[in-house]
Amino acid sequence: MNPRVVTLALILIFGTTLATTYAKLTLEQQVEKADVIVRASIKQKTQETRAGKIWTVYTLNVAKFYKGSSETFKDSSFAVFDSEKVKLEGAPKLSENDDLFLMLYTKTYDSPIVGFRQGAYKVLEGDKIVNLDNKPVMIDTDGKPTEATVETFTKQLETLTGGAK
Amino acid sequence: MKATSLSVLILLGSVAIAAPVTYWVVTSDGTPAEFAKQVDTAFNAWKAVPATTLKLEKNKDSSLQFAWNVAAEDVPINPDAITRTIQTTSEDGKTTSTIVNVNPDQSENLEGGLLVEAGLRLGVPLEPSIEGKRSVGEVEATALRSKFGQTGDLNGDQKVNLDDLEILASNYGKKGLPSVNLNGDFNGDGVVDDKDLEIMKTTYSFEIAPEKSLTPESPTTPTTPTKPETPTAPTTPTDPSTPPTAPTTPTEPVSPPVTDPVTPPPTDPTPPTDPGTPPTDPATPPTP
């Protein structure tokens, strides 16, 4: 096979050449590890200096909690250690108005998303669920993997978290 | 082609392709002794891929550092991260330094994480999520070769064409150490064979693609090739015990000759034979 074709294929498959490696987690593992699971949109994206370091802070409009509550997630925001001059490679990059399902740790980490960036799912066109590499998320429906929709993804979350809130 | 010319070309081919050197440093502060070895192992796994011109050296440049959880107290590492890469740009924006931190709590995945990090530093895109052990597979090796590999340009003229095929043909079937004048052993398995011809085939069209720029865009450039290049006569075998035969069929794709500038361009230019097209069948092995 043409090596350049292989390289191109790898880039297409894996999307980026950004480093930072992480253990692969199943959706079940992500749900189990998360302190907070929400469906939310990004209300605001800002840069803040905390203890002399610049962080990107995302403030959310939370539509629904699937795990945790407004008590445990008081300020409805999270910060990623990523800025223009100090880049955290592979860090989740979100935009204002993004519609997302987010699985988060409440402790401070360079990225508080469960699985570094795995526990963030975008909702596209109001219904389609993709990961941060814009790949469709597959869910087992009646024993066969199908592309997740908001309905099937929500059902899965509710099953894994022990029921609707 | 005369044997003496061939020797010179082989010599040129052996020094023509150079790769940039990748350096790395392992910081020592608080680092377990075996960590430096693990980092070396990761780079050496890539270095071991045959038929590359990859150059790796450690401890010469600190712009790429591997560190055992340095700065973790300031900025805790995500518990699911195996390695974390932070790239810092200097105030003047002229230089960047990269530090790869390791999460001590993910030691069972560290080997795979470091292998991926080393690959990414070398520009080979790899899936950053790790599940169990990782190794440099054939797909990754091919990707590495596409960046640092021998390209098929055996005579170092920045083209892969019939001249290179002749060199390969003259060595076809020969066995030996790749580094000892065995030009054409692209995959480094110690023999020049069909596999090497396949590698040459993959770059054959690519190397001559730039010549496409000589075609229709320029109004002063004639667009129709007037004469296809005739394949050069077979090379005289240098080793009578393995008489190579130059490939019989390939007609070398050539760019249209840039000739008489006063000749007006044709009104309805017929596209020249695609110079990116490889010879008719370079995959057909020369008869050893």
List keywords for this structure.
heterodimer; A: 165 residues; alpha+beta; six-stranded antiparallel β-sheet; B: 288 residues; alpha/beta; five-stranded mixed β-sheet; 6 helices; disordered N terminus; disordered C terminus
Structure commentary:
- The complex is a heterodimer of chains A (165) and B (288).
- Chain A is α+β, with helices and mostly antiparallel strands and 165 residues long.
- Chain A is built from 3 helices and 10 strands; from the N terminus they run αβαβββββββββα.
- In chain A, strands 4-3-2-6-7-8 form a 6-stranded antiparallel beta sheet. Chain A has a two-stranded antiparallel ribbon with strand order 9-10.
- The model of chain A is unreliable at 6-16 (pLDDT under 50).
- Chain B is α/β, with parallel strands linked by helices and 288 residues long.
- In chain B, 26% of the residues lie in helices and 11% in strands.
- Chain B has helices at residues 3-15, 33-47, 110-121, 138-148, 162-171, 194-208; strands at residues 21-26, 55-58, 64-67, 81-89, 96-102, 129-130.
- Chain B has a 5-stranded mixed beta sheet with strand order 2-1-3-5-4, with helices on one face.
- The longest helix of chain B has 15 residues, at 33-47.
- In chain B, 38% of the residues are buried.
- The A-B interface holds A 1-4, 6-7, 10-11, 13-14, 16-25, 33, 51, 53, 81, 84-90, 105, 107-116, 118 and B 74-89, 91, 100, 106, 109, 112-113, 116-117, 120-121, 123-131, 139-140, 142-143, 145-147, 149, 202-203, 206.
- Strand 1 (21-23) of chain A pairs antiparallel with strand 4 (81-89) of chain B.
Any chance you could write out the topology, listing elements then pairs?
The complex is a heterodimer of chains A (165) and B (288).
Chain A: H1 3-14, E1 21-23, H2 27-33, E2 36-50, E3 53-67, E4 77-80, E5 86-88, E6 99-104, E7 120-124, E8 128-131, E9 138-141, E10 144-147, H3 150-161
Chain B: H1 3-15, E1 21-26, H2 33-47, E2 55-58, E3 64-67, E4 81-89, E5 96-102, H3 110-121, E6 129-130, H4 138-148, H5 162-171, H6 194-208
